[in-house]
């Protein structure tokens, strides 16, 4: 920069002209090398000194480019105005550079200046303006989020005649795909239904018939997203009036929105539309089976009320099942299932969930498991909701294990099998983050899983491994409920009684109370020792990591204690084993149990915290 200042000073002292390309190149090089503020200040000083530069096209060109790239769009606009007023010619590159700077700024004043540039260019170029120019203005205002300006440019485009252009240059107005994309993107800028309707109606006038269907579908989806279901239904009605038939997916979206509303009127609309689509599907199936000709329309139905609805798809049946289930109508649910078989459709996920919930409500775990197996064997792909229902069914199994229908409950698998299968499914799912979010936002889900493992297994190894699965695979730390379940499980180990009643009565025993207090005291002591090792971690993660590691050590020490107690009983064999057994042997047995549990759950490489050998060294 000093070199540039010296050069300019020497040239002025010797009377040479200061507008040489070398001077401008030095100034621009300093700007590009990061000395932006110094370069802009020197440019402004030269302009203020009223040297021959201010009205030099190259000098003004450099000032516009530097100020625009430095984010000083207002000053760049002023210099551009000086450039235009000087009558030195027209440079579209500088024009678009300043326009883009205004769009990047995005302020109200900057957008007004950008609109002034648009008005100037439109009036200056006149009929020589091209679709490319309109597209740049439209996309610029749309990117800045100014719907009014973008819509105004969109309307101005339609007033110009581009029919004389070569086919390769017809990019925006005469290309239906580009026009459709422009209309949809423009409508997304607004949250007002009236403005959305206006935008789509403007685009509808120029689109060909085959593209109008796509526009109607986008129109309907956007109104549904805003919750304007009646207006979405009117858009579908307008589609029928234009001789177009909506797709089943479009109508299913409308039905789904009606089903989610709590009022009976919306449910009635959803049912009527869904049943009409079902009837269309049954008509097609019956016609194909009997090879009959196309059935005639009922003459009693007025012509303007006849609608060529698309046939129902599996999603339509699933929505009807969901509607009838929410209404508590089991008879309609069963009738819809029978109709679905007649329509030659397999069950979809939505219908599967309804039938699984129906089986849960009736306590029929055989039906729940049968529905899931049939769906899975038919090639269906379960979701996180499916697994949630399966875990709830497993909960029902252990809740009724002591009742008279316990034998019926045994048809449903236990938590070990469910966890193994769920992890296999989770490894193949296309959206694992969605599964993680579904489980992570539901504390009851992780508590339920841990509760079932505590009820179904006598070995603490099957408590330790699921706890680390929830952390390693789903990012879930142990909750307060899980801490209670683990402490309760450890305290109950070794107490007399194996029936539900005996285990329930064991809570009143003094030994249980004493064991619980001892377990909590041990956990507290382990946690305090762990705190010093985990300093520097953020508060929440620090607390949760201490809890996870503390429970891990507690479970391992409990396993070691009971493994040692197994060889201190009566009998020659036990006494001999106790004599020959060392702490290392006990650790080997404990780690073998944990390794076996990991193998049965399908997570052989899962890290499960500090091993027993290291715990002995820490003792």
| Range of helix content | over 70%
Q: What is the count of β-strands? A: 0
Beta-strand percent range: under 5%
Structural class: mainly alpha
The separation of the N and C termini measures: 69 Å
By DSSP (H or I, 4+ residues per run), the number of helices equals: 32
Integer average pLDDT: 77
Globally, the shape reads flat
Q: Unreliable segments (pLDDT under 50, ≥5 consecutive)?
A: 162-174, 299-305, 569-581
Radius of gyration: 37 Å
- Major sheet attributes: none
Keywords: Repeat
InterPro entries: TPR-like_helical_dom_sf (IPR011990)
Structure notes:
This protein has 619 residues and is mainly α. The chain has a domain at 473-618. Helices cover 71% and strands 0% of the residues. It has 32 helices and no strands. It has helices at 2-13, 21-32, 36-48, 57-69, 73-85, 92-105, 108-125, 131-143, 147-159, 176-187, 193-204, 209-225, 229-241, 248-260, 264-290, 314-326, 330-342, 349-362, 365-377, 384-399, 406-409, 415-428, 432-440, 443-456, 461-474, 480-492, 500-505, 510-531, 539-565, 572-580, 583-600, 612-618. α25 (461-474) runs antiparallel to α29. It is flat. Mean pLDDT is 77; it is low at 162-174, 299-305 and 569-581. Keywords: Repeat.
Structural features:
619 residues; 71% helix; 32 helices; single chain; flat; mainly alpha
Detail the topology: elements first, then pairings:
Layout: H1 2-13, H2 21-32, H3 36-48, H4 57-69, H5 73-85, H6 92-105, H7 108-125, H8 131-143, H9 147-159, H10 176-187, H11 193-204, H12 209-225, H13 229-241, H14 248-260, H15 264-290, H16 314-326, H17 330-342, H18 349-362, H19 365-377, H20 384-399, H21 406-409, H22 415-428, H23 432-440, H24 443-456, H25 461-474, H26 480-492, H27 500-505, H28 510-531, H29 539-565, H30 572-580, H31 583-600, H32 612-618
Helix pairs in contact: 2-3, 4-5, 4-6, 5-6, 6-7, 8-9, 10-11, 10-12, 11-12, 12-13, 12-14, 13-14, 14-15, 14-16, 15-16, 16-17, 16-18, 18-19, 18-20, 19-20, 20-24, 24-25, 24-26, 25-29, 25-31, 26-28, 28-29, 29-31
